[in-house]
Structure formats: structure tokens, C-alpha cells
Amino acid sequence: MTSLLRAACAALLIAASAVGCAPVGALATIDDAAAQLRAAEEAGALAKAPYEVWAARAYLDNARLARGLGDHRGAAAMARIARAHAADALNRAVSAPASAKAAPP
User: Fold this and answer.
1) What's the pLDDT score for residue 18?
2) What pLDDT shows up at residue 11?
3) Residue 79 lies inside a defined structural domain of this protein
4) Nearest Cα to 39, choosing from 85, 74, 82, 87?
5) Number of H helices, E strands in the chain
6) What is the number of domains present in the chain?
7) 37-54: pLDDT as tens digits
8) Residue 82: predicted pLDDT
9) 70-to-15, 80, 83, 104 alpha-carbon distances in Å
10) How far is CA 9 from CA 5, 21, 27, 30, in A?
């Protein structure tokens, strides 16, 4: 009986610790996305990849909002999308010729 109780307590402790990590994981993902976006903006991505920059900003704003509302999974998901858009913007800014501008819609 005591081994069953110990196993139940161990399982409960593991589950509780996993739930406690969600806010930290979301914050780290948001910070990564923000850093990627800053790098893209510093590389001149707003002129060369405006769609990607604005998409990254919008998803990052939504990630911060979701985190503030306690939706840590949603925040992390939005931050991952923001990070992907920011990475695309950075790649376009770095690989585009200096005189290249974004094509008009």
C-alpha cells in the first residue's frame, strides 16, 4: 500500500512540475521571437520584407496578449509563428541586394 501511495505522490509531483514550466517556456519562446525580430529590423528587413516583419510583429503581440491572459500554450504557439516570420524577414534582408525593395502588392 505504501508503494502505491509513493507512486501516486511521485506522479502528482511530476505533473505539478510540468504545469509550472509552461509560463517559463512561453516566455522564453516570446523572448526568442522578439530577439529574432530585432535582428531582422536591424538588418533592414522592414524595407526588404515588410510582410514578414509585420506578420512577426502581429504574432508577437498576440503571443504577449495570450501569455497575459494565461494561455501559455497559445502564447508559445504564436511566438513560434512570430519567430518563423522574423527569421524569413532576416533571411530576405540579408540575401536581398542593397537596392532591392519589396514588390508592390
Assistant:
1) 45
2) 47
3) yes
4) 87
5) 4, 0
6) 1
7) 999 999 999 999 999 999
8) 98
9) 18, 17, 20, 39
10) 6, 19, 29, 33
**Distance separating alpha carbons of residues 74 and 10, to the nearest angstrom:** 28
Torsion over CA of 100, 42, 90 and 25, rounded to 10 degrees? -160
pTM over 0.85: no
Which range of residues forms the domain containing residue 46? 22-95
The answer to the question of residue 105 being in a domain is no
Residue 22 pLDDT? 58
Which of the residues in the chain have pLDDT under 70? 1-22, 98-105
The answer to the question of residue 69 being in a domain is yes
pLDDT for residue 77: 97
Residue 65 lies in a domain: yes
Of the candidates 72, 100, 70, 80, the one whose C-alpha atom is nearest the C-alpha of residue 33 is 80
Show the cell assigned to 11: 506522479
In 57-80, which positions are buried (b, 16+ CB within 10 angstroms) versus exposed (e)? bebbebbbebbeeebbebbbbbbe
